[in-house]
Design a protein that fits this description.
This protein has helices spanning 31-46, 50-59, 66-81, 87-105, 110-160. By secondary structure, the protein is an all-alpha fold.
Length: 161
């Protein structure tokens, strides 16, 4: 595909997926096309640092077929199950939420419903852990702040008395 440019960002395109923004650069085809594009997209993620991974996960190619969506969702899970404090985890959760939404818009099937249920469980687990981290972080800061006020009050009373 020499001379091709990404329609989203304008970067030079050498494959089915833009190496810069993750958008689809080719014309969508059947299941084989989606599998190849998803493989290419996942390959792009492997060679990037965490900031680039997050950018690609947030805006990159998401298949349309049920099988492609399920495979794309399964490939998000390792980013979510890893370190929660890194940006790719949050980007992967948002990507998985988009995949779940697309799966819900498709005609119902047992496979789709099972995937939606599993993916929603992964997202809920991440969000619960994230909320717990926030709670404990704020609790620690609150206790430290209160301790600082008490120490300052004691020092002020000693200085006056």
């Amino acid at each position: 595909m020499p001379g091709m440019k990404c329609s989203r960002c304008g970067a030079a395109a050498s494959g089915l997926v833009c190496a810069y923004c993750g958008a689809l650069t080719g014309t969508p085809g059947g299941g084989d096309f989606e599998r190849q594009a998803l493989e290419e997209f996942c390959g792009l993620l492997q060679g990037k640092d965490w900031k680039e991974q997050a950018k690609l996960l947030e805006s990159g190619y998401i298949p349309s077929s049920p099988g492609g969506l399920i495979e794309a969702g399964v490939r998000c899970v390792p980013f979510i199950k890893g370190e929660r404090f890194e940006r790719p985890a949050e980007a992967a959760v948002r990507r998985l939420e988009a995949i779940v939404l697309k799966l819900k818009l498709l005609p119902r099937s047992d496979e789709n419903q099972r995937a939606v249920s599993e993916f929603e469980g992964v997202v809920a687990e991440f969000r619960k852990a994230e909320a717990s981290d926030t709670f404990w972080g704020l609790t620690v800061f609150g206790v430290l702040g209160l301790l600082l006020i008490v120490v300052a009050w004691i020092l002020a009373r000693k200085a006056c008395g």
